[in-house]
Every structure is written in structure tokens, then in C-alpha cells.
Design brief:
By secondary structure, this protein is mainly alpha-helical. The protein has eleven helices and no strands. Helix 2 packs antiparallel against helix 5, helix 4 packs across helix 7 (about 125-150) and helix 4 (about 80-95) runs antiparallel to helix 8. It is elongated.
Length: about 230
């Protein structure tokens, strides 16, 4: 019997009614996700956690990215390159509040199908977390992301670069329509929404990587209830 089959068999027993006296599958999943989230957000919260990582680095969104690509061959994209860098710095600075939000969401999870999650693919718990929390987390992360975008200078840099987007890229007519929003305000909204979306995507990516590592080496990477349940 290979290790995966052995673990699956052990987990199936552990989370039957008789096994709950020894190990709570739902608690083990929450512990796994909390451990993975803390590791992922610590990694991403370092300097260059986003900006220096090609896997999760956040590019400029939509029209800003188009303008940046058009202007780079002309040597005129410097202001937009600066916005991109500052947006990634903001995402790095947002990791402490993001960690708290994700961990709070994990604690509130009611996990009915613990057996299938624990016996599922290497990132089954992460997929479960993302499916049930991404929408509310997107809403909750927006205020702290706005704070870090302000602190990083991303908004100020974007205001200064807005003419590059609206004039040199020929996209000026796309902004300021409906509700009387200025081009700068419209661009700020795009930047904020995109930064939140991609920051969460980076978190879930590395939570999944951490989950995979924990499952492959539970004795070294896990502790307590989690080690007892998935460590064989």
C-alpha cells in the first residue's frame, strides 16, 4: 500500500463518527489553512514579495497596461512603470491586514466535507477556502489596500501619469463618462480593484503551495492535530 492510499485510509477512519473522538477533520483543515496562510502572507509581505516574483507580480490593469506597452518602445513609460512598482509595494504592505482577514475567514468556516477535502488533491483545502471566501475577502481587503496604495505613493504616481494614459494612448474618451468621474478617479478605481484581485490571487497561489508542502511532509511542516491527522 503506497503512502497516499495509507493516508487516505487513515483519514477516512479518523473522520468517521468513531474517529472524531481522536481527531476533528474540520479543525485539522482550519489549522492547515491557517498555517499555510501565515507562511504565504509572510512571504508576500517581504520587500519584492510581489514585485520581485514573476509568478505573482501584479501588472498594470487594462488601459494602463496598454498605454505602458505602447509607450515603452518610445522610452516614455517611466511614469507608468513607477505606478506598477508602487502598486506591488502596496500589495506587499497590505499583507498583514490581509493575513488577519483570511485567518478570520478560515476560523468561521463550517466544513461539512472534511473527509473529501483531506483525501482530495494536494490543494483541495485551498480550493475550498477560495471558493467560499474570495468574494467577501475582496470587499474586505479594499479599504486596507486603498490605505497602502496611498502610503506607497501609487495614487499620486498614477495621478501624475494619467495624461499618458488618456492622451498619448488615445484613450482619453474612455474616461470621465457617467457619474462625472474624472480620468484620474476612474484610473484609481481600476488600479484599486485590480490590485485587490491580484493580491488575493497571489495569496491563494502560495497558500496552495504551502498546503502541498504540508501534505508531502506533514511530520516536518505540520504540528498538533494536523500532524496527527495527516502524518500517518
Amino acid at each position: 500500500m503506497d503512502r497516499r492510499t495509507f493516508l487516505a485510509t487513515g483519514l477516512a477512519f479518523a473522520i468517521t463518527p468513531a474517529g472524531f473522538a481522536q481527531a476533528d477533520g474540520g479543525a485539522a483543515i482550519r489549522q492547515l489553512l491557517t498555517t499555510a496562510t501565515e507562511a504565504a502572507t509572510t512571504r508576500l509581505g517581504r520587500r519584492d514579495g510581489f514585485f520581485g516574483d514573476p509568478v505573482v507580480r501584479i501588472p498594470l490593469p487594462g488601459t494602463m497596461r496598454s498605454a505602458q506597452q505602447r509607450l515603452q518602445p518610445l522610452g516614455l513609460a517611466g511614469p507608468l512603470d513607477d505606478v506598477e512598482m508602487r502598486m506591488n509595494r502596496a500589495a506587499e504592505q497590505a499583507m498583514p491586514p490581509a493575513r488577519r482577514l483570511v485567518v478570520d475567514a478560515i476560523r468561521s468556516l463550517t466544513i461539512q466535507d472534511a473527509a473529501s477535502i483531506l483525501r482530495g488533491p494536494d490543494t483541495a483545502a485551498t480550493q475550498y477556502l477560495r471558493g467560499r471566501t474570495e468574494t467577501p475577502l475582496t470587499r474586505l481587503l479594499r479599504p486596507p489596500m486603498e490605505e497602502t496604495l496611498t502610503a506607497s505613493g501609487a495614487y499620486s504616481a498614477l495621478d501624475g501619469a494619467s495624461n499618458l494614459v488618456t492622451q498619448r494612448s488615445g484613450l482619453g474618451g474612455l474616461f470621465g463618462r457617467g457619474g462625472g468621474n474624472s480620468p484620474a478617479a476612474s484610473l484609481r478605481g481600476q488600479l484599486t480593484d485590480f490590485a485587490v484581485e491580484r493580491a488575493l490571487g497571489g495569496i491563494f497561489h502560495y497558500v496552495g503551495e504551502e498546503e502541498r508542502s504540508i501534505r508531502r511532509d506533514p511530520v516536518r511542516r505540520a504540528s498538533g492535530l494536523l500532524r496527527g491527522l495527516i502524518g500517518g
